[in-house]
DNA sequence: GATGAAAGTTTCGTCCT
DNA sequence: AGGACGAAACTTTCATC
């Protein structure tokens, strides 16, 4: 499970791509002082082994009218398999939820919810409160992003 | 600030790219039933206007030995401009912090911290506790990801 | 906004060290 | 393992409708 399978060359490729996901193989190769052939072989291997899970464009939420990010702590009524599965399925269906983890501490889940405004948030809260397995939620509104989607420390 | 500047074609381009950041212009055009020329013009405009902030590879944290994600609530001793600026500069320097927001509620900041293991977490905690402006922290360990880095609801 | 052609890149198979 | 070469495919850019 650790990174023993990855040498420093692999890590350089991954680091380059997590900073600019549209780099071509030639550009990566140049950046890490390797010729394109072995660089492409490594890249394909990293993709096939799902070390690279995919690529995505980072969009500016504010510019898109999604001005409100809310972190929501959720406590369930019961931790039966049905409750857990039902809640998680519901969360996966909700497009406003962009991240969701089970967490240690007093809450069961921590969700990151993205909506346009307070009205959108109200609509979403009503949805989640209609889930019978939800006991309690606590919302913390993001006021300002200090650091967003930074690269992983490789 | 709202999305009045973006028509449904723009949104389709953005949605395609947030799901697959390596799509070529030709592929996007095909996917949204537009010819490549106007599609590329729109894409470049969206990049120049920073609606698209960048592109990144999504990496599998576990495969890279970064098995531990922790959400940390931080309270500052004071909210003077110096304290705030100092704390935020420190957070931006710390590679383990991949996300940081100021939030409403009892805490001042919510951080997402990525480390290899408990030892790495301990090292990071010591760093943050050495900052004089930090009054108190509360850590919630992510036990399992239910949804990670999902596309924005466009 | 669509089409088509030219120029430039990228990818990828193959072979060699 | 890394490096080199060439063919095929693709992308971008441009002119034109």
Structure description:
The structure is a homodimer of 154-residue chains. Chain A is α+β, with helices and mostly antiparallel strands and 154 residues long. The first copy, chain A, folds into two domains: 7-48, Arc Repressor Mutant, subunit A (Orthogonal Bundle), CATH 1.10.10; 68-141, Alpha-Beta Plaits (2-Layer Sandwich). Helix content of chain A is 37%, strand content 29%. In chain A, strands 3-4-2-5 form a four-stranded antiparallel beta sheet, with helices on one face. In chain A, helix 2 packs across helix 3 (36-48). The longest helix of chain A is centred in the N-terminal third of the chain and has 13 residues, at 36-48. At the A-B interface, helix 1, strand 1, helix 4, strand 3 and strand 4 of A face helix 1, strand 1, helix 4, strand 3 and strand 4 of B. Strand 3 (97-103) of chain A pairs antiparallel with strand 5 (134-147) of chain B, so a sheet runs across the interface. Chain A binds a DNA duplex (17 and 17 nucleotides) through residues 24-26, 34-41.
Number of domains of chain A: 2
* Most extensive interface between two protein chains, with residue counts: A-B, 69 and 68 residues
> What ranges of chain A have pLDDT less than 50 throughout 5 or more consecutive residues?
none
- Measure the end-to-end span of chain A: 15 Å
**Number of E-type strands of chain A:** 5
Report helical residue fraction of chain A.
Answer: 25-40%
Specify the overall morphology of chain A: elongated
Gyration radius from CA atoms of chain A, angstroms:
20 Å
- Topology as H/E string of chain A? HHHEEHEEHE
